[in-house]
Amino acid sequence: MINRAAKETLERLASQFPVVGITGPRQSGKSTLAQNTFPDKRYVTFDDRNMRELAAANPGDFLSAFPNGAVIDEAQKVPEIFEALKYHVDQSAWTPGKFILTGSSQFHLKKNMSESMSGRASFLNLLPFSVQELSAAGLLPENPYPLIFKGTYPPLHDPEKHFIPYDWFESYIDTYIDRDVKDLINPGNLSTFRKFVQVCAVHSGQLLSKESIARDVGVSSPTISSWLSILESSYIIHFLEPDSNNLGKTVVKTPKLYFLDSGLLCHLLRLDSVEDLLLSRHKGAVVETFAVSELLKQRMNLGKKPNLTFYRDTRGFEVDTIADWKHTFAIEIKSANAPESKLSANTRKYLELRKDKNTKNAVFYLGDPSMTINGTAYVSWKDWGSFLNAS
User: Fold this and answer.
1) Is 254 exposed, middle or buried (0-12, 13-18, 19+ CB in 10 A)?
2) Quick one: pLDDT band at residue 54, thresholds 50, 70, 90?
3) Which is the most buried residue in 22, 72, 79, 283, by most CB within 10 A?
4) Domain span at residue 251?
């Protein structure tokens, strides 16, 4: 079993709040994390029809049957449970960590918890495995591209399962659209929504252009806005906002779109092998997507806001990522496998513009050793998820 970096954060939140919800994309390991962190708690899943009917019929009595609390999986399938939880928490002694809720439908789980459990609940966002987690488990390949191509969803790294990425991702997309998206859009648009997801893949790592996506999909721009919100809420994509420090320059105001798993991105780009990825015009964008995802995982595993932006002015000068953490880092992401001075040119220029001695620069690259050369940190792909641990 692979130990999850978010376990300590889950324990921290559960030491304060009576209810903790674990959100994240499908198949990111939410239920497994909850059960492994709280092995002494009863585990209940509302996938079980009998449990679901019992809870819906009398949610208050159902909760009272677990005096020591429980891990409740697929909680969103019984909406009545949330009001009952609120009443239960308010009428009982404050007991941190009593109920842990997980669910594969992020929209309903988070909406119901936010509306019913204000001040009584906290959330942990769990993404798929990080490089750091895979490395600790001895599952990191020597070459980064097989991992970038496969992605980091836990089932694809389970030694007892032998999923072929193509087949697994096809099933994943079908399940996602059928169970998570079906109730949120017009049923007649499901096939168009699938095309929309594929079109979005071409835009990963780029400035968001709703008009361009709308034109390629054949729907209106407002519909694209609504559908992008669905993808973001279900942790399929993430928007990187532009850096607010304009340094006296005219900067773009448009966010950049990133997928949260490079394997899913490769599948949607119809890349069938590592060789296809290496020869693809999308290789740089896929590598950049992988790096941004690793930074996001590091922050989410700590229970912290991402605080990641990017810098780009209207003349096209750009720094891939600005990590505004304990220290501010300007980060360039490159698919090169050797550190070279030219790789850090944009970050060094950014430091000159910012004139802030506390701002540092780094280059994420695909070589093995991490090192510092002339004040610039060149960070191996194996260290992307842990480089800013102290920040």
Assistant:
1) middle
2) very high
3) 72
4) 131-287
